[in-house]
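Input/output pair, single chain:
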Amino acid sequence: IYRSDVNAKINFKDKTYFANIRLKGDRADHWKNNKRLSLMMNLKKGQSINGNQKFSITGHARRAFPQNEAISKFLSKTDVIVPTFHTYRVNFNGQNWGQMYGEESFSASFYEKRKLKESPIVKFTNSADGRIPAMLATDNHKRDFLQDLFDLQGIYEINVYKEKKFSKNKT
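Output:
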């Protein structure tokens, strides 16, 4: 999928924010419909909403709500670094999309809010869950079957934020 940023205005609590937005998500359930698309928001001019300069909005079910939020709150109480979540009422180009789930993304403000030194962050993820099996899938070996094999073997994908900035062999 080719994703391009587009300029946007976001109105939140009687204030206008300027942002770049783009489609988010690796699978069609994030963007196949005409409304309630998953979007990545990157606010301009150092602005933030709920302390987040960069965040995504998705449908609650795509982020395993409410389990995901409950687990994140528990982990944060045990000093594990996790993103914050908020529910927003979304009106997109005059069309009511209803409630959507906002998730903080890794950014300069992510480090700043937590008083962390900028360094790589390793994120164990299932948002990319299925990317490798999807690439390997054939008519004879369906994606779900391959994902089950990966799960049984304990193979998980990880994303590393800021990896290139801190690696010795910058390629």
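The mean pLDDT is 82. The chain has five helices and eight strands.
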